[in-house]
Amino acid sequence: MIEQYFVHLLILIGIYLILAMSLQISIGFTGMLNLGHIAFFAIGAYTSALLILNGFPFWFAFLSAGILAMIFGYVLSLPIKKLKGDYLALATMGFSFVIYAILLNWTKLTRGPLGIPGIPKPSLLGINFSSNFSFLVLTLIICAICYFLIKRVTYSSFGKVLESIRDDELASKTLGKNTSKAKSLSLMISAFFAGLAGSLYAHYITYIDPSSFTIMALVPVLCIVIMGGLASLRGTLIATMIIVLLPEPLRFMSFPSSVVGPMRQIIYALILLLILLYKPKGIYGKVEIE
Amino acid sequence: MEKWRSSKMLKIQNLSKHFGGIKAVSNCSFEVRKGKITALIGPNGSGKSTVFNLISGVLKADSGKVLFEGKEIISMPIDKISNLGISRIFQKSRLFNNLTIKENLLLAFGNEDEKFWKNLFGLNKITKEKEEKIKEMLKLIKMQEFEGKYARSLSYGQKRLVEIVRAIINPYKLLMLDEPVAGVTPLLRKELSEILLKLKGQGETIFIIEHDMNFILNLADEVIVMDEGKIIARGTPSQIKSNKKVLEAYLGN
């Protein structure tokens, strides 16, 4: 029983890590305060769930989740090209409300508030990942690949262009960089990985409904990014473990479930405040939050 | 005189820009000649920086033309203008503070769009030429040991120097410097003036805004004086020194 619980926590850490790393690309590396990220996670989850329930294999559903999220990333990048800071945050947040509204109201496709139950556990290359332990192995493998790819992207010369946009977009343009193209690509790559995380989430939980994809679901991810430090993947890894594990003791105290939910949010808010006050660069970050 | 020396690299025609009711630049026309140092001087708020921003695309002009090597560049985006070979620095330091000096300089190199996927996954290593060029540039400003330091850890004067080498590390045709020595120590000022003379010796074209009359009069081939958005005088440094209108604009009546 206790092993099952740890396996569950590790899977959650894996999924959150992919999601948080993907958010690092747009917030930490490119400096775009993207508050609509949960929408890409949702698009990934729904795409994967609907495809697999319609008979497509897991690998196809999984990749489509990433690609469709990426296409939405491109679409979002068009209207926000010239926005910065708070305005960008508001516009991206608006985007996540739109996606949420679509999931809730396009009942023919998504079954609306009823959600989609019975999402099967994945099987790949003839291996069935139905036990939690095998799912953990799958998650860890995907997580490692994502970590490697994101690290490659952010260490590349393209990654440095992204960082230059974060530090000073005008100076970057003056050096001849097409910054709107780079920002758009950053958002697409960011959305792609968020979509993959969404797919894993859907197949693990086996049931999704729009309420899992509200802006509140983004709070812990945002906490991870800030706590780990902007533009630090190593910090993101450590912060993911802390943020996922920290509220867990609440389960073992005899609070009613109506209290536990808000308590989690209070914990996240406290963590954010403490970091901003005492360690504004996060655990491993080099960039100070302005 | 050889022909290339007198040929015009940048030609400004009737350039105008206003902000609300204020005419920041009104009907300015002048040229920047190839291989020369042209200085733009004038009192605070006379529109010098606005002219720079109009040329480099940071601001959009209300009317007028900017021709670079005969090509109209007025409606082009900033990055396109930069890729034509116009390299500039700003009045305030604009280094990428959370990147190292080396990364800052690497970003100045050309944009190899065709190698996009290679770039994306970091497969194209930094070439030896780039490494050497960076070393050479840092040696020029005597900051070799700063390669791995974050830009934000530098002093203001050091930042200015790094910015200038970031602007010249990649081949360019026209270098535009907006008050490069404002607020730096006399020693750095001397160093900078040597660097600029060296560039001039190599036949580079430089367009410079500066407040320090002594600094500029020793350096420039041609001086353009602006006041209240208009060009009030043009000429060689010695002509400008004795120009009544210029003295009035600087010293008041």
- SSE pattern of chain A: HHHHHEEHHHHHHH
- Named at the architecture level, the CATH assignment of chain B is 3-Layer(aba) Sandwich
CATH class of chain B: Alpha Beta
Largest interface: A-B, 28 and 30 residues
Main features:
heterodimer; A: 290 residues; mainly alpha; two-stranded antiparallel ribbon; globular; B: 253 residues; alpha/beta; Rossmann fold; six-stranded mixed sheet; disordered N terminus
Task: Walk me through the structure.
The complex is a heterodimer of chains A (290) and B (253). Helix content of chain A is 72%, strand content 1%. Chain A has 290 residues and is mostly helical. Chain A has one domain. A two-stranded antiparallel ribbon of chain A has the order 1-2. In chain A, helix 1 (2-29) packs antiparallel against helix 8 (179-205). Chain B is built from 11 helices and 10 strands. Chain B has helices at residues 3-6, 48-55, 78-83, 101-106, 116-120, 128-140, 156-168, 186-201, 213-219, 237-241, 244-251; strands spanning 8-19, 22-33, 37-41, 63-68, 71-72, 86-89, 174-178, 205-209, 222-227, 230-235. In chain B, the strands form 2 sheets. In chain B, strands 6-7-8-3-9-10 form a 6-stranded mixed beta sheet, with helices on both faces. Chain B has a 4-stranded antiparallel beta sheet with strand order 2-1-4-5, covered by helices on one side. Chains A and B meet through helix 6 and helix 7 of A and helix 3 and helix 5 of B.
Topology:
The complex is a heterodimer of chains A (290) and B (253).
Chain A: H1 2-29, H2 37-53, H3 58-77, H4 85-105, H5 107-110, E1 123-124, E2 127-128, H6 132-155, H7 157-174, H8 179-205, H9 218-228, H10 233-245, H11 249-252, H12 257-278
Antiparallel strand pairs in A: 1-2
Helix pairs in contact in A: 1-6, 1-8, 1-9, 1-10, 2-3, 2-4, 2-8, 3-8, 6-7, 7-8, 9-10, 9-12
Chain B: H1 3-6, E1 8-19, E2 22-33, E3 37-41, H2 48-55, E4 63-68, E5 71-72, H3 78-83, E6 86-89, H4 101-106, H5 116-120, H6 128-140, H7 156-168, E7 174-178, H8 186-201, E8 205-209, H9 213-219, E9 222-227, E10 230-235, H10 237-241, H11 244-251
Parallel strand pairs in B: 3-8, 3-9, 6-7, 7-8
Antiparallel strand pairs in B: 1-2, 1-4, 4-5, 9-10
